[in-house]
Design goal:
- The complex is a heterodimer of chains A (about 575) and B (about 575).
- Helices cover about 65% and strands about 10% of the residues of chain A.
- Chain A is an alpha/beta fold and about 575 residues long.
- Chain A has 3 domains: about 170 residues, ABC transporter transmembrane region fold (Up-down Bundle), CATH 1.20.1560; about 110 residues; about 240 residues, Rossmann fold, CATH 3.40.50.
- In chain A, strands 6-9-10-3-11-12 form a 6-stranded mixed sheet, with helices on both faces. In chain A, strands 2-1-4-5 form a 4-stranded antiparallel sheet, covered by helices on one side. Chain A has a two-stranded antiparallel ribbon with strand order 7-8.
- The radius of gyration of chain A is 36 Å and the shape is elongated.
- The mean pLDDT of chain A is about 85.
- Chain B has a 6-stranded mixed sheet, sandwiched between helices. A 4-stranded antiparallel sheet of chain B has the order 2-1-4-5, with no helix packed on it.
- The two termini of chain B are about 65 Å apart.
- Chain B has about 575 residues and is an alpha/beta fold.
- The chains are: A alpha/beta (about 575), B alpha/beta (about 575).
C-alpha cells in the first residue's frame, strides 16, 4: 500500500497540513469571543468589538480557503489511489493462471476490484480530511483549556477519558455484531437464491410452506440481531451528550467559584464551555472515522491478498521464434500433474504424440484428466514432471502471445463478450478480413442464423449473451476460434449444446476446411470422436488405450464400456 | 406518495413505536435546545469578582442536570423506538415478499434475473427501511431543531434572531448551488463507474477466453482508458461534493461572527446579558447543521422511493390463481391425455394443437431439435405454465380442476439441472417426505444406486452439501435427485435426460436407476440417449411446437422422415 501513498505524497502531506491550519484557526474562535466579552463588553469598547469581528471574519475566510485546498487534495488522492489500484489489480488478475483464478473465484475478484476499492477510496479521503483533524481538535481544546486554567482542565481530561472509554466499549461490541449481521444477511439471500433456482422442484414437491418457514426463521434471527446492534449504537449519542453537558455544569459550578475570587473572568468560563462542545463534536466525528477504517482495513487486506499473489505460470525465459510446423504438433512424454495440496495425481505419466494435420479425439469420463491435457497444452497449468512439446519445442519456450496465435481453443463454457458479433469474432485476430469472418461463420454452421439477423455480423450481443440460444453461442465460439487460421484447434467438449445433426455437419465442415490443421476434440460423446484419425482414451489419469474406433472397440475394455453406455452394438459397428 | 402510503400499511402494527419515537424526538430535542439557554443563565450568574449569585447558579445547575438527563433519555428512547419500528417493518415486508415469490407465476420468475429478485429482497428493503423510516425521524428532528432554535432565538432577542434568519438563505443558496453542480458530475461519474464495473465483471468472468486468445494487453489498455476517463470526472465529483461542508461552515462562521459583534454591541447597550449572548452563539453553531442533514436525507429519500417502488411492483405482480376451493387429486393410475393444447410464451404461437394420449405404464419419449417445445410440455403437465387452449387430463380429470399441489404430487420429476439445497444429503433426499424414517431414506438411496457413494463420503448421509455443491460430481447430484423421487413413489415420471458432463461409471448407474424409476409408471422422457429412445412405447418427434411424427423406433425408421434423419446424422462420416 505504501507505493500508492508515495504516488500522492504531495496530497497526503499538504491535505492534512492545511486541515491542521484550519483547525488551529478554529481553536482561536472561542478565545476571540472571550476577548469580546472580557474587554470589549466590560470596557464598553465598540471599536474593539468591531475589530475582533474583523478577526473572526478573517479566521472564517482563511479557514474556508484552507479547507477547500484540503478537500481538493483529498479528492485527487482518493480518486487517484483508486484508479491506480484498479489498474494494478486488473493487470494482476489478467496475469493469473487457472489455478489462481479458481482459488479466488470470479465473484470474489469482481467484488475486490469494485466494492473493496471503493471502501479504500473513502478511507483515503477520510484519512486526509479527518484523521488528523479530530484528534488535533480534541488535543488542541484540551491544551487551550489547560492554558486557560490548570485546575479547571481536570474536568476536561476526566470527561474526555470517560467518553473515549464509552466509545471504545460500544464500538468494540458493535463491530463484531455487524459482521454477524452480514453473515445472516448472506444466509437469507442464500435461501432466496435456492428458491429461485429450484423453483420447479420446490413447487413440484409442494414445499412452499416449508421454505417459507425456513425463510421466516432466518429473517427473525436477522431482525433480532439488527435490533440488538441498533440498540447498542443508540446508546452512543445520548451518553456522550449527557457526559459532556454534565461536564459543562461542573465547569459552570467551579468556574463561578473561581470568578468570585477573581481567578477567572466570565468570558473565560464561556470559552471553557465552547471548548467542551468542540471536544464533543470531534469525538463523535472520530468514532465515525474508526468505523470506516475498520471496514476499509478488511478491504485493504482483501485487495492486498490478490496483489501479493503471483501467477503460477509465466512466460519468463521465453523466446521469439517460428517453429517448424511440420514437426509433431503436440507430444507428451511421461507427463504427470496433480493439483496443489492433493495427493491424487490427475495425470500420471502419460505419453502420446499428435502429428501435424491429424484429427485426434480424447475421450474419458469427468475427472479422468482429459481437460487437464488441454490445459497443459495451453499452459494454463505447468506439468509437475515430464515433457510437453509443441511442434518439437518445449511448451515453456513459447511466449504466451505467439503460442496463442497458432493455437486456438473453444472452451467448455460458451463465453462471448458484450459487443457486436464481429467484435467477438475478431478476438483472436483483430486484423481478419470480412471474408475470413464469413468463412469461419460458415464452417461453424452459424451462417444460417447470423444471416437471419437483421444486422448480420453487426448484431449486438448483450451481457451474458441472453439474446442467443446456447447452441448459437457455442457455434459463434467455434467461429471465433477459426478466425486467424490456427495451426492447432482444440475443441474442449464444444458440441454439448448442439443437436446430433448439427454436430455431424460441423465436424464434416471442419475436416474440409483445412487439411493441414491439427484438430484435437475432447468429448464424452463417442459419436463426436468416432471418426478421428486417432482416439486417446483417458481413464483415471492414465492413457488406457489409443487407436482408431475399430481397433479400440475390440481391444479396450474402458472404451467398449463408454460406447455401450451410449450406443447399441449395431450402432457401434456402423461406420 | 402512493409508495409512502403503502409502506405505512406495513408499519401499522408498530404504530405505538412510531408515535413514541415521534414524541420522544420532540421531547428530546426541545429539552436539548433549552440547554444553551440555561448555560447562558449560568454564565450570567458568574458576572465577575465577588458578584457571583451562588443561589441562582445552584438552581440553574440543578435544572441543567435534570434537562440533560431527560433529554438524553428521550434521545435514547427515540433511537430505540425507531430501531424497533424500522427493523420489524423490514421483517414483515421481507416475509411478505418471500411469500409472494412462492405464489408468483413461473413465467415471471423465469423472465427475471435471480440477481434482481434477490436484490429486492435484501438490499432494496434495507434501503427502504433506512431511507424512509429512519429518514423520517431525521427530517422530523431536523425541522424541530430549526423551529425550536428560531423560537428560542426570538425569545432572547428578536433583532439578532431576525438577522440570523435573513442570513440563513445565504447558507441554503450556497448549499444548493454546490449540490446542483455536484449532482451533475455525480451522475456522470456513476455512469462511467457502471461502465467500468461492467467491463471488469465481464472480463474477469471470461478470463479463460481472454487468456486463450492472448488478449490480456488489449483488455488492460481498454480498462485503463475507461478508468482514466472516470478518474477525471471522479476527482471533480468528489471535490464538488466535498465543498459543501467547508462552504456551509464558512457561512456559519460568518453568521457566528456577526452575532458576536452585534450581540456584543447590544450587551454594551444593555439590551441583552452576556449569558444571552452565549446562548445565542451556541444556537448559531447548531442552527445550520440540520439544513445539511435534511438535504442529505432527501437524497437518500429519492433512492429509497425507487427501491420501494421495485419492492411494491414485485408485490403487485399477478399470482398463480388460488386453488383452495378445488378438490384434491387422489389414486391416480396415470393416464395422461392432451387434446388440442396450444401455448405461447409471448405473442407468437409456440405449441399448436398438440394432442396425444399416454396409457398407464407407458413410456413416451420426446425427441427433436433444441427449442422444439420438449421442455415446455413438462412445464404444462406440471402446471408451471397454463396452456392457452385445449385440455390436459389426468385419469380423465382436467388438470385445472384440481389443486396444483395434489397434481404435482403425482409426478416424479428429474430435471437436467439438478437442484440440491444447502443442507445434509439426508435432508435433500427426504425433501418430499420429511416424515420418512432413516431406513426408508436409505432404501430409496439404494434403489437409486446412490447408497454406495453416499456411504463412502466422510459424513455419510449427514454430509453437508455446500452452496456450490463442490463436494459432489454432477452425476452424484443426479443420483441424489433420483433417490428423492424414489422416496416419493408417484405414479408418473417426468425426466429430462442429462446429455453430457457425467462420467461413464456414474452414467451407467443413472441409467440403471432410471430403469428402476420407469417400472410401472407412465413416463415422459426428453430423450437424448439412444437406448431410452429405442425402448420407448411411443416416440413423439417434435419440431417447432408440433408433433411431426409419432410411433415406435422401428416404425419411425421405416417411415423415413425427420426421425430417420436425426437418427442417421449421428453416424454421418465427416
Amino acid at each position: 500500500m505504501k507505493k500508492y501513498f508515495s504516488l500522492y505524497k504531495k496530497q497526503f502531506i499538504l491535505g492534512p497540513a492545511f486541515k491542521l491550519c484550519e483547525a488551529i484557526l478554529e481553536l482561536f474562535v472561542p478565545l476571540v469571543v472571550a476577548r469580546i466579552i472580557d474587554r470589549g463588553i466590560a470596557q464598553a469598547d465598540r471599536a474593539y468589538i468591531f475589530k475582533m469581528g474583523g478577526v473572526l471574519f478573517a479566521l472564517a475566510f482563511f479557514g474556508v480557503v484552507f479547507a477547500l485546498i484540503c478537500q481538493y487534495c483529498a479528492a485527487v488522492a482518493q480518486q487517484g489511489v483508486g484508479t491506480q489500484l484498479r489498474n494494478d489489480l486488473f493487470r494482476k488478475i489478467n496475469s493469473f493462471s487457472e489455478k489462481e483464478l479458481s482459488r479466488f473465484g470470479t465473484a470474489s475478484l469482481t467484488t475486490r476490484i469494485t466494492n473493496d476499492i471503493t471502501q479504500i477510496q473513502s478511507a483515503v479521503a477520510m484519512l486526509i480530511r479527518l484523521v488528523f483533524r479530530s484528534p488535533f481538535l480534541i488535543a488542541g481544546s484540551l491544551i487551550m483549556a489547560v492554558a486557560l486554567d490548570r485546575k479547571m482542565s481536570i474536568i476536561f481530561i476526566v470527561s474526555a477519558v470517560i467518553v473515549s472509554l464509552i466509545l471504545y466499549l460500544i464500538l468494540s461490541k458493535s463491530i463484531p455484531l455487524y459482521k454477524k449481521i452480514q453473515a445472516k444477511l448472506d444466509r437469507l439471500s442464500g435461501i432466496v437464491k435456492d428458491n429461485l433456482s429450484g423453483v420447479r422442484v420446490v413447487r413440484a414437491f409442494a414445499k412452499t410452506d416449508y421454505e417459507t418457514e425456513r425463510f421466516e426463521e432466518s429473517n427473525e434471527e436477522l431482525t433480532r440481531r439488527n435490533i440488538r446492534a441498533g440498540n447498542l449504537s443508540a446508546l452512543l449519542n445520548p451518553l456522550t451528550f449527557a457526559i459532556l453537558n454534565s461536564a459543562i455544569v461542573l465547569i459552570l459550578h467551579f468556574g463561578a467559584i473561581n470568578v468570585n475570587v477573581g481567578r477567572l473572568t466570565q468570558g473565560q468560563v464561556l470559552a471553557f464551555t465552547n471548548y467542551m462542545t468542540q471536544i464533543l463534536l470531534s469525538i463523535i466525528v472520530f468514532s465515525n472515522v474508526i468505523v470506516i477504517f475498520t471496514k476499509a482495513g478488511a478491504s485493504v487486506a482483501r485487495v492486498k491478498e490478490v496483489l501479493e499473489t503471483n501467477a503460477s505460470v509465466t512466460d519468463d525465459g521465453a523466446e521469439d521464434f517460428t517453429p517448424d510446423f511440420t514437426k509433431p504438433a503436440v507430444s507428451f512424454n511421461n507427463v504427470s500433474f496433480s493439483f496443489e495440496g492433493s495427493e491424487e495425481k490427475v495425470l500420471d505419466g502419460i505419453s502420446f504424440e499428435i502429428l501435424s494435420g491429424q484429427t485426434v479425439g480424447i475421450i474419458g469420463g469427468t475427472g479422468s484428466g482429459k481437460s487437464t491435457v488441454v490445459n497443459l497444452i495451453m499452459r494454463s497449468f505447468d506439468a509437475e514432471s515430464g515433457e510437453i512439446k509443441i511442434f518439437g519445442e518445449d511448451v515453456g519456450k513459447y511466449r504466451f502471445s505467439s503460442l496463442r496465435k497458432f493455437l486456438h481453443t473453444v472452451p467448455q463454457k460458451n463465453t462471448l463478450f458484450s459487443g457486436t458479433i464481429r467484435e467477438n469474432l475478431l478476438f483472436g485476430n483483430p486484423e481478419a478480413s470480412d471474408a475470413e469472418l464469413e468463412s469461419a461463420v460458415k464452417t461453424a454452421q452459424a451462417e444460417e442464423f447470423v444471416r437471419k439477423l437483421s444486422d448480420g455480423l453487426d448484431h449486438v450481443i448483450n451481457t451474458d449473451s441472453k439474446n442467443l440460444s446456447g447452441g448459437q453461442r457455442q457455434r459463434l465460439c467455434i467461429a471465433r476460434a477459426l478466425v486467424g487460421d490456427p495451426k492447432i484447434l482444440i475443441l474442449d467438449d464444444s458440441f454439448s449444446a448442439l443437436d446430433f445433426a448439427t454436430d455431424a455437419r460441423l465436424r464434416k465442415a471442419l475436416s474440409e476446411d483445412r487439411s493441414d490443421r491439427t484438430v484435437i476434440i475432447v468429448s464424452q460423446r463417442v459419436n463426436t470422436v468416432k471418426n478421428a484419425d486417432n482416439i486417446i482414451v483417458i481413464n483415471e489419469g492414465k492413457i488406457s488405450a489409443q487407436g482408431t474406433h475399430g481397433e479400440l472397440f475390440g481391444s479396450s475394455g474402458v472404451y467398449r464400456e463408454i460406447c455401450l453406455s451410449q450406443l447399441s452394438e449395431s450402432e457401434v459397428a456402423a461406420e | 406518495m402512493k409508495t409512502l402510503f403503502e409502506l405505512i400499511k406495513y408499519a401499522k402494527p408498530f404504530r405505538v413505536s412510531f408515535i413514541l419515537s415521534v414524541l420522544s424526538a420532540l421531547a428530546g430535542i426541545s429539552l436539548s435546545l433549552a440547554v444553551p439557554v440555561l448555560i447562558g443563565r449560568g454564565v450570567d450568574c458568574a458576572a465577575g469578582r465577588d458578584s457571583v449569585d451562588f443561589v441562582s447558579l445552584k438552581r440553574v445547575c440543578i435544572e441543567l442536570v435534570c434537562v440533560i438527563l431527560l433529554s438524553a433519555f428521550f434521545q435514547w428512547l427515540m433511537s430505540y423506538c425507531s430501531n424497533k419500528l424500522s427493523y420489524k417493518t423490514v421483517k414483515l415486508l421481507r416475509n411478505e415478499v418471500f411469500a409472494k415469490l412462492n405464489r408468483l407465476s413461473l413465467g415471471y420468475i423465469d423472465s427475471k434475473s435471480p440477481g434482481d429478485i434477490i436484490n429486492s429482497v435484501t438490499t432494496d428493503i434495507d434501503v427502504v427501511a433506512m431511507g424512509l423510516l429512519q429518514g423520517f425521524t431525521q427530517v422530523l428532528s431536523g425541522i424541530v431543531t430549526i423551529l425550536g432554535t428560531l423560537i428560542f432565538m426570538f425569545l432572547i432577542n428578536p433583532y439578532i434572531a431576525l438577522a440570523v434568519v435573513l442570513l440563513t438563505p445565504l447558507s441554503l443558496f450556497m448549499a444548493s448551488f454546490i449540490a446542483k453542480r455536484a449532482h451533475k458530475k455525480y451522475t456522470q461519474q456513476a455512469k462511467l463507474r457502471g461502465k467500468l464495473t461492467g467491463y471488469a465483471c465481464e472480463m474477469i468472468d471470461g478470463a479463460g477466453v481472454v487468456k486463450a486468445f492472448g488478449r490480456e494487453n488489449e483488455t488492460q489498455k481498454q480498462y485503463e482508458e475507461m478508468n482514466l476517463e472516470w478518474e477525471k470526472v471522479g476527482v471533480m465529483a468528489h471535490f464538488y461534493s466535498a465543498m459543501t461542508n467547508p462552504m456551509t461552515r464558512f457561512v456559519n462562521a460568518l453568521i457566528y461572527g456577526l452575532v458576536a459583534v452585534f450581540g456584543g454591541v447590544l450587551v454594551i447597550g444593555g439590551t441583552i446579558t452576556v449569558g444571552a449572548l452565549a446562548s445565542f452563539l451556541a444556537y448559531c453553531s447548531q442552527y445550520t447543521k440540520p439544513f445539511n442533514e435534511i438535504s442529505a436525507v432527501i437524497a437518500e429519500f429519492q433512492n429509497a422511493i425507487s427501491s420501494a417502488q421495485r419492492v411494491f411492483n414485485l408485490l403487485s405482480e399477478p399470482e398463480e390463481e388460488s386453488d383452495e376451493a378445488l378438490p384434491e387429486l387422489e389414486n391416480v393410475r396415470g393416464e395422461v391425455k392432451l387434446q388440442n393444447v396450444c401455448f405461447s410464451y409471448d405473442k407468437n404461437d409456440f405449441i399448436k394443437d398438440l394432442s396425444f394420449t399416454a396409457m398407464p405404464g407407458q413410456t413416451v419419449a420426446l425427441v427433436g431439435p433444441t427449442g422444439c417445445g420438449k421442455t415446455t410440455l413438462i412445464n404444462l403437465l406440471m402446471r408451471f405454465y397454463d396452456s392457452k387452449g385445449g385440455v390436459i387430463t389426468l385419469d380423465g380429470h382436467d388438470i385445472t380442476s384440481v389443486t396444483r399441489n395434489s397434481l404435482r404430487g403425482q409426478f416424479a420429476m428429474v430435471l437436467q439441472d439438478t437442484w440440491l439445497f444447502s443442507g445434509t444429503i439426508y435432508e435433500n433426499i427426504a425433501y418430499g417426505k420429511p416424515q420418512a424414517d432413516r431406513s426408508e431414506v436409505i432404501a430409496a438411496a439404494k434403489r437409486a444406486y446412490a447408497h454406495s457413494f453416499i456411504s463412502r463420503l466422510p459424513g455419510g448421509y449427514d454430509t453437508i452439501i455446500n452452496e456450490s455443491n463442490d463436494n459432489l460430481s454432477q452425476g452424484q447430484k443426479q443420483l441424489i435427485c433420483i433417490a428423492r423421487v424414489m422416496l416419493m413413489d408417484p405414479p408418473i415420471l417426468l425426466l429430462d435426460e442429462a446429455t453430457s458432463s457425467i462420467d461413464t461409471r456414474t452414467e451407467l448407474k443413472i441409467q440403471k436407476a432410471f430403469a428402476q424409476l420407469l417400472e410401472g409408471r407412465t413416463s415422459f422422457i426428453v430423450a437424448h440417449r439412444l437406448s431410452t429412445i429405442k425402448n420407448a412405447d411411443t416416440i413423439l418427434v417434435m419440431q417447432d411446437g408440433k408433433i411431426v411424427e409419432r410411433g415406435t423406433h422401428t416404425e419411425l425408421l421405416e417411415h423415413g422422415g425427420l426421425y430417420k434423419k436425426l437418427y442417421e446424422s449421428q453416424f454421418a462420416v465427416y
